[in-house]
Amino acid sequence: MQGLKEKLEQQIPGLRQQAREIIKKQGDKVISHVTVSQAFGGMRGVKGLVCDTSVVDAGQGLAIRGIPIGNLACRLPEEIFYLLCTGELPDAESLSALQSEFRQRAQVPPYVWRVLKALPEGSHPMTLFSTAILVMERDSVFRRRYAEGMPKDDYWKATLEDSLQLLAKLPAVAAGIHRLYTRRGAPLPSDPRLDWAADYAHMLGLTDPSGEFADLMRLYLTLHCDHEGGNVSAFACHTVGSALSDAYYAVSAGLNGLAGPLHGLANQECLQFVLGVRKRFGGVPTDEQLREYAWNTLHQGRVIPGYGHAILRVTDPRFTAFHQFGERACAADEIFRIVDRIFAIVPEVLREQGKAKDPWPNVDAISGALLYHFGLAEFDYYTVLFGVSRALGLCAQLVLNRALGTPITRPNSVSTEWIKANTQAAQAAA
Ligand code: NMX
Ligand code: MLT
Question: What is the pTM of this model?
Answer without folding.
Answer: 0.97
